[in-house]
């Protein structure tokens, strides 16, 4: 969390993928899905790992997550 705080102080934008990872770890699945959708709209580089990254395991049974994976055409 210190990195995110530092970036906020530096007025730098935080990648929604990084934010989604933190939200998933904290069990904030709804917020994580919203951030992943933002990442999709922004064409974030981190999306290529979405299907395989273990951090997202708690989201795998969520239909919104499955829909996002389908949109990425993995």
Report on the structure:
This protein has 74 residues and is mainly α. The protein has one domain. It has 4 helices and no strands. It has helices at 2-9, 16-25, 29-41, 63-72. The radius of gyration is 12 Å and the shape is globular.
By DSSP (H or I, 4+ residues per run), the number of helices equals 4
Strand content: under 5%
In whole angstroms, the N-to-C terminal distance is 30 Å
Shape: globular
Helix fraction bin: 55-70%
Please write the string of helix (H) and strand (E) elements: HHHH
Helix and strand arrangement:
Layout: H1 2-9, H2 16-25, H3 29-41, H4 63-72
Helix pairs in contact: 2-3, 3-4
Outline of the structure:
The protein is mostly helical. The chain has helices at 2-9, 16-25, 29-41, 63-72.
Q: What are the key terms here?
A:
single chain; 74 residues; mainly alpha; 4 helices; 55% helix; globular
